[in-house]
Design a protein that fits this description.
With 231 residues, the chain is α/β, with parallel strands linked by helices. It has 7 helices and 5 strands; from the N terminus they run E-H-E-H-E-H-E-H-E-H-H-H. A 5-stranded parallel beta sheet has the order 3-2-1-4-5, sandwiched between helices. Helix 5 packs across helix 6. The longest helix is centred in the middle third of the chain and has 15 residues. The chain is globular, with a radius of gyration of 17 Å.
C-alpha cells in the first residue's frame, strides 16, 4: 500500500486507523467531515492531531442536519444517557446518523479518485455499536463493490479498496493496537455531548472509559486536560 486516505473523525477509533495506515503506507492523507455534528470539537482536534503528525489533512463539508433523524445532528433529539442498552432494540440507537458512513465513503472515494489514491482506510468496528448498520463487514464489502462499479475501476482502472482493520476488534484491543503503533490519543475526543472534556455519561464516553480502565492506563486525553491543556 503506497498511498491511502483515512476517514479521520479525530476519535479514538479513527486515530488508531490513522496510526495503522501510517505504519503501512508512505503517503497518508486524513479526511475529516464537517457534517453539522453537535460534537464538532472533534474537527478541531482532528486538525490538531494531523498537524502534530505532519499528515496532510482536508476537511470536507457536507451538512447532514437537513437529513435529521439523529441525536448527533438534531439538538431536539436527546442523547441517550442510560448505561444500559435496550434489551430488545427496535433499530439503530438515537446516535445513529442515517447512512452517514455510506455518504462518507462515497465522498472519500470521489476525493481519492480525483487524486489517484486507491485505498480508503476507516476505523469501523462493531463492538460498541452493534446496532449500527453501517459499521459491519457486510456493509464495507457492499460499499467496496459499489465504489468499484461507480469509478474508473469499471473501465479497467485501479480497483479501490476499503480497508477496515479494526473490524473484529474490541475497544480495548483497538487501544492496545494503537499504543503499539505509537498512536497519539491526547487530542482524540469521543464524547457526543460536544465538549473536549468527556461528559462521562454518553455511550461513547462510557465505552472509552471502560476500555482505558481495562488497558490499565490513564486516558491520554484526560491526562493532557489534567495537566492544563495544550502541549
Amino acid at each position: 500500500m503506497r498511498s491511502c486516505v483515512v476517514l479521520f473523525s479525530g476519535g479514538l477509533d479513527s486515530t488508531t486507523a490513522l496510526a495503522w495506515a501510517r505504519s503501512r503506507c508512505d503517503d497518508v492523507r486524513a479526511l475529516t467531515f464537517d457534517y453539522g455534528q453537535r460534537h464538532r470539537v472533534e474537527i478541531a482536534m482532528a486538525r490538531k492531531t494531523a498537524g502534530r503528525l505532519g499528515v496532510p489533512h482536508t476537511i470536507l463539508k457536507v451538512d447532514l442536519r437537513p437529513v435529521g433523524g439523529s441525536a448527533l445532528t438534531d439538538p431536539r433529539i436527546p442523547l441517550p444517557r442510560s448505561p444500559r442498552r435496550p434489551t430488545s432494540p427496535a433499530g439503530p440507537p438515537a446516535t445513529y446518523v442515517p447512512f452517514r458512513n455510506g455518504i462518507f465513503l462515497a465522498l472519500a472515494a470521489a476525493w481519492a479518485e480525483a487524486r489517484g489514491i486507491r485505498d480508503l482506510v476507516c476505523g469501523f468496528h462493531v463492538e460498541d455499536s452493534p446496532d449500527y448498520p453501517d459499521t459491519t463487514r457486510a456493509f464495507v464489502t457492499a460499499m467496496e463493490r459499489a465504489v468499484r462499479a461507480g469509478t474508473r475501476a469499471a473501465f479497467g482502472g485501479p480497483r479501490p479498496r476499503i480497508l477496515a482493520p479494526l473490524l473484529g476488534l474490541g475497544k480495548t484491543d483497538i487501544i492496545r493496537l494503537g499504543l503499539g503503533l505509537g498512536a497519539d490519543y491526547s487530542y482524540s475526543v469521543s464524547c457526543y455531548a460536544g465538549a473536549e472534556r468527556p461528559c462521562g455519561t454518553c455511550s461513547s464516553c462510557r465505552f472509552r472509559a471502560r476500555a482505558w480502565k481495562a488497558v490499565g492506563r490513564e486516558d491520554p486525553l484526560l491526562a493532557r486536560l489534567r495537566k492544563g491543556g495544550s502541549r
